[in-house]
Specification:
mainly alpha, Arc Repressor Mutant, subunit A, 3-stranded antiparallel beta sheet, 3 strands
């Protein structure tokens, strides 16, 4: 059972999106989600190759956090070395439209690198 995502940092906060947006704003978080959303389940090494400037420690921290809040599922096969694969949970798939809409907005607003990334990573629509 995944831990629940606490949406409010303190009881005075009125915005119901605050906790979710703080979680998504964490370093590398949206990029990790975008890669798994776009490419399907990924092993640690696959993610690391696609993110050459992230440290192993930071990637591990982000993946653990996303697993703890129930957005990613971690599957470990007992092999030597262990084979660990990360995939979106049902809760993670709830973010698909949000990620797609953010990518479209980044292209519209002409954010650096957005158009190339959107072309390369946007999931293909079923015909």
């Amino acid at each position: 059972m995944a831990m629940s995502l606490h949406l409010r940092q303190n009881s005075d906060m009125q915005c119901p999106m605050d906790g979710l947006l703080r979680m998504l704003m964490g370093p590398w978080t949206t990029y990790i989600l975008w890669l798994i959303r776009s490419n399907g389940p990924q092993r640690f090494g696959q993610l690391r190759k696609q993110m050459p400037t992230i440290s192993a420690k930071m990637l591990t921290e982000r993946l653990r956090m996303l697993e703890e809040v129930g957005i990613l599922h971690r599957e470990q096969e007992e092999t030597i070395p262990p084979k660990v694969t990360y995939s979106m949970t049902e809760r993670g798939h709830d973010l698909n439209k949000v990620l797609d809409d953010l990518a479209k907005l980044a292209v519209k607003w002409d954010c650096p690198g957005a158009e190339k990334a959107a072309r390369e990573k946007m999931p293909k629509k079923a015909s």
